[in-house]
Amino acid sequence: MTLLETDRPALDLEDIVASAAQALEGASALEIIRWAVATFGDRICLTSSMSDAALIHLVSKVKPGIDVLFVDTGYHFAETIGTRDAVQAVYPVNVINVTPSRTVAEQEAALGPRLYGRNPDLCCHLRKVEPLSKALEGYMAWFSGIRREETPSRRDRKVVEWDGRRGMVKVNPILDWTQEDMDNYIADNGVLVNPLHYDGYPSIGCAPCTRPVAPGEDPRSGRWAGTGKTECGIHL
């Protein structure tokens, strides 16, 4: 039984978010995860880009068997698909492959080739944002692996947020982790990592829109390079 299933009067989800965001600010990732699992039970899932399995490793320690949603855009590197398959084999989780409504070929037939180059915002919306939003409809909350230090738009985020666009709760357990924290956790726990990280890709998206990053460059500068775009739209 979760906290939402007790005999207490039903609480508005936005009220839960407001109180939890304040109470859990500064809490450890595991404390945040335990609160979310106790609150939402089987109505919470985890999303992953398969850049690494740090959050998957953390969450599965508290809730084995949790659904992990992976958006297969049709444009991923082979290494990313391999990481997805390895995660399913290694961790006690249920990986769900989420796909867009159109295949790449169908999208190109309807909208022309290389939409990712001509209109990356629309391509991301059709192949990432839209299918993920549909897949999340069966849940009350979702775990995200965003971190404050990654982009300026993430610096003011909360560990527990109201996702108004989807009408659900978003939980960000590793929001305050630095890259050093992430690296140490991965090394200490033998966490699976996408092999592209070792080839100069600190941030990994779709193959046509991701390039290697030179030493000293911003880790996300290889995403949509030269377009001024920094977010796919999932976390806006």
From TrEMBL:
Q: Where is the active site?
A: C232 (nucleophile)
InterPro entries listed in its UniProt record:
PAPS/APS_Rdtase (IPR004511), PAPS_reduct_dom (IPR002500), Rossmann-like_a/b/a_fold (IPR014729)
Which ranges of the sequence are coiled-coil?
none
Which transformation does this protein catalyse, written as a reaction? [thioredoxin]-disulfide + sulfite + AMP + 2 H(+) = adenosine 5'-phosphosulfate + [thioredoxin]-dithiol
One term under GO cellular component: cytoplasm
The Enzyme Commission number assigned here is 1.8.4.10
Q: Which GO terms describe its biological process?
A: hydrogen sulfide biosynthetic process; sulfate assimilation, phosphoadenylyl sulfate reduction by phosphoadenylyl-sulfate reductase (thioredoxin)
Known NCBIfam families for this protein?
cysH (TIGR00434), PRK02090.1 (NF002537)
Q: What is this protein called?
A: Adenosine 5'-phosphosulfate reductase
Q: Which organism is it from?
A: Actinomadura rubrobrunea
Gene label:
cysH
